[in-house]
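Lab notebook, bench 4. We co-purified these components, and the gel suggests they stay together. Before we commit to crystallization screens, I want a quick structural picture of the whole thing.
Request: model the full complex, all chains together.
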Amino acid sequence: MINIPSTFRISLRALRVNKMRSGLTMLGMIIGVGAVIAMLAVGTGARQKISEQIASIGSNLLMVLSGASTSGGIRMGAGTQPTLTLSDAEAVEKECPSVQAVAPILGGTAQVVYGNQNWSTGVTGTSPNVLIVRDWKLSSGRPFSDDDVKSATKVCLIGQTIVDNLFGSIDPVGQVIRIKKIPFTVVGVLEAKGQSPNGQDQDDTIFVPITTAQKKLFGTAFPGMIRLMSVKARSAEDLVKAEKEITELLRQRHRLSTKQENDFTVRNLTQMLQTAEQSTKVMTILLGAIASVSLVVGGIGIMNIMLVSVTERTREIGIRMAVGAKTWDIRLQFIIEALTLSMIGGVIGIICGITVSRVLSNLAGWSIVVSPFSVFLSFGFSGLVGIFFGFYPAYKASLLDPIEALRYE
Amino acid sequence: MKSRLLQPPRCSDMSLVEAQGISKTYTFGEVEVRALCPTTLTIEEGEFIAVMGPSGSGKSTLMNILGCLDKPTTGKYLLSGVDVGGLSRDERAEIRNRKIGFVFQGFNLLSRTAAIENVELPLLYNGVPAEERRQKAMAALKKVGLEGREHHHPNQLSGGQQQRVAIARALVNNAPLIFADEPTGNLDTKTSAEIMDLFVQLNTEASITVMLVTHEPDIAAYSRRIIRFLDGCIVSDEARSNA
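Here is the predicted assembly.
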């Protein structure tokens, strides 16, 4: 009959007797578990940040930029040649089956004035579809309508940063602001979205109807011209198909012969970010794997100390056997000892890991996520390490010959 | 397993120890060393036996076999009617726990462990609840005259006191049989006499069977039967009348 509480007490006493040794052995586990927790926290944090960014730019997003111009053999960047028009955007939305919505974009920077406050910000001319494409909701007011686009009304939606800078505590809906000295009525306020993947404040923006932007704000020599269009595909699987459909349609509309290069560029933002997410995932696994090595090393430390301990206490084992300890009484005693070492080390390691993660997140300014999963994993793993590396020494102890063990000096 | 070992068939004419032709041969590589010749021996309940003989004469081997620490190479060994020769390691551990108490020359107490916990040790492996363990261990320590020293550690006790703790440990499970391997070997004459008086007292008052191994005739003189060994064989086995 095995008496677990008493066996537990015996094990704890043995560990207390050799405080220094137990402490050092635990240190191996503490470092191992701490490293796993901290590494997973850093990795999970990075991944979470990327996921948030994917969500914030809108999911399943494609960007169609007007084409690269070539002047004297020097190819300028995408967007330098005004080749996309509002009717291109309408055609993409109508004719490409994989496209859910299209938001044409024409924008620039403008000074915005309300009362005695002024603020310089990006003003984007677009269609009501922008809210669908970018998965953006309004926190108050209403969106502008297709009629507003048709008749080029002077209405706008403003981001949270604009509200903070111009209005303070005043309700902006219904107020009139001046963009490039032209009065616009605020019809709605966009929900706060935070930073974009490249660190821009997405809330520092104003949406106006595309036609208004073309005619009143950023008038160009090319009527109907837009800078780019944001396209939302029906699903993540449709992204590649949508890209192909848009390319074909636009080549046809722009009357490009097979030899000519595209005069526009299609970019798959979501895919880029998904690739980034994938690589952080791989990175996290890698970091975790490296950290796990130190866990295994910690386990070997435990095994080493347990083997020494069994040899040192041969006589004690002999005495216990002589008075009636059975194979499993002895085995459990040593397994519990190893388990206690690894579990206490594990718990301290979890605390250290979380602390290190916090410090790292403060220093690096990253968001760091200590997931319950990683805590559970490290705790479970340290327990397994204890049992695995404790078993052999315990097994060795239980096989000692009581007569030999009693004679051991 | 438990029931088979604990409730042996009891008949009135059964001896406590019945060894029939037990022998022990150790094999070191190709060399065989005979530690114990085939020996037949019967011990009745309540006996007080001294085993004497020079070093290496086989007396410790006999004691290890009778104490279920070792298995005989040949022969049959019945302990209160149960054939213990064929038992497994754990079954022998159980027999040692319930039926046999050991007292060693070097005391063999757990250091850094209070006297009371040393005495509780056999009960621990017998699954006795903590409360009962403490009570029984207290009673056993009282019996050997160590009341008030329950929480002393072995290094805080004199040799005689340590041996008393060991005896209390042998008594605590109410074992009917105590094997003592040179119990006074590390003690001075006066303390030896006290320890031997304790053995005699346990033998006469509690009718515990005592078998002790010793070199010293003075110590053997406390017994009522002396078995002498030489080169692995019993050379004499005689009862003493005056005890």
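Chain A has a mean pLDDT of 86. Worth comparing against the SEC data before the next meeting. Residues 4-53+275-407 of chain A form one domain.
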